[in-house]
Amino acid sequence: MSIIELKNVSVEFKQKKKPTVTAVNQVSLKVEKGDIYGIVGYSGAGKSTIVRTINLLQKPTAGDIKVNGVDFVKAGKQVIDNKKLQVERRKIGMIFQNFNLLNEISVLENVAFALKHAKLSDQELEEKCHKLLKLVDLDDKADAYPIQLSGGQQQRVAIARALANDPDILISDEATSALDPQNTQQILDLLKRLNRELGLTVVLITHEMEAVKAIANKVAVMENGHLLEKGSLKQIFLHPQAELTKQFVGGSLEAMNVLNQLNLGGLGKNEVIYQLVYSVSNVTKSIIIELYRQLGIEVSMLYGNVELLGEEPIGTLVILVKGDQAKQEEALNFFDEAGVTATKIQGSEIQND
Amino acid sequence: MISFLSKYLPNVVQLGWGGDAGWGTSIVQTIYMTWWSANFGGILGLIFGVLLVVTKDGGINPNKFWFNICDKLVSIFRAIPFIILLAFIAPFTQAIVGTQIGTTAALVPLTLGIFPFYARQVEVALEAVDKGKVEAAQSLGATNWDIIFDVYLSESRSELVRVSTVTIISLIGLTAMAGAIGAGGLGNTAISYGYNRFNNDVTLVATILVIILIFIVQVVGDYFAKKLNHQHR
Fold this sequence. Notes:
Low-confidence stretches of chain B: none
Helix content of chain B: over 70%
Oligomer: heterodimer
Order of helices and strands of chain A: EEEHEEEHEHHHEHEHEEHHHEHEEHEH
CATH superfamily of chain B: MetI-like
Helix content of chain A: 25-40%
Strand content of chain B: under 5%
Low-confidence stretches of chain A: none
Number of strands of chain A: 15
Largest sheet of chain B: none
Number of domains of chain B: 1
């Protein structure tokens, strides 16, 4: 049984004198216990809105929501009363982009706030708080105020607070977006560790593909309120279907940056740029050389990168293929047979970006 | 010292310290009126301020009916000039404290005069609390009471002290007008014994005393507002 089940969930925002905005449109999603489920998309895609329906911070206007086997929403109507919802929410931790710690109380008191209804004795409460702070490696800051901590440390306090009631699920709403790369890495490592050690199910929303690549095992891609694609991380990376997914997976933003700086000028008539994504362990042949040998097609390499997808090395190449229409077709077929995902990159994307 | 004061401020000295018109009496009356109406008006204002924020559209327990009642009540009482309010609610005052005149009678209009002012200030202070903190608390399974006390009131406490200071200072201003219904106080001394009798020295000293009182409130308020604030490094 899935730990989180969203079925045809829609969220509409009614506005005065303006057309209704559909932030989330008929999204279905199943998260299994122990998953680290990444939801990616640009800002405004509706990814934040959809995860906030999981703990009903956002009420959906249509669809069914079931979490931990408890029905929250059926056919767009909340079927759990607010008292029960409060109890259920304690099993769904959530962390935010801006940490959202209470600034007027100490780090320890922030964690204790989450345990207000846990019916612990003062001593048990204090022990539990220290245990949680040790888990995020911040026990020495127990008496500090949040503002005295760095962003990464504040986010770790927020994680300790979110985990206070031993939740089964942790929702991360752009939790690393306000952090520098080093702190981002720390937080991601911590989430991965919690997933492994506590069996915590993590739902990770981000616009940074790097975060998803580093720890997720499943990915969903969203655009304009629609869920474009979902699947295992590897499947999405190696065989992306939607255009946006293809852009996201190949580290193509970074590639674009590089290409922009190369200042290629206009493309020639018979020149096409492709982005190739492939699993390094599967593609043993040297594809570029083979392409020339077998088909006589010339290729310039513009950008190349190999990165780890979980444990799996994934290569990204951006190449310029020279040749007429027929040659281009042949090249695409060749890539397909070799198990390489090729995406055409428009020349205009490079110049305009 | 006394002879120096008698020479330059003869009417001030003549009023004396104790007695109905004495300086000590009027200082105590002003503090008495300020203290009690600050307490009553403060509690009332806090309740209304919290209700406004909680029942507002997008608040933690939206309720159009209660929001409108609170909102209109606050707006109406704010709109009535204090000196008119004094007369307007005289029968109500009579019913509550049994008399329409005197220092204690003044507490009723002072409370009703100051609470809407404070309620609006509290509303603004609570609105300034980051919505994200409220959401985070909700995601932790906090009840609405938890959110009111541990998020809204606790997080805005420094700002609440600041607006309370402003409110008390306004209130000291209102107590001066309460002299109109025989409530005494420094304001009354300045008008009745100073201005009306052409004793400018009395008006001057009463004014200086009011300024000192306000100054003390300001300094104490600033001190606590700063001490209670951990939002900045």
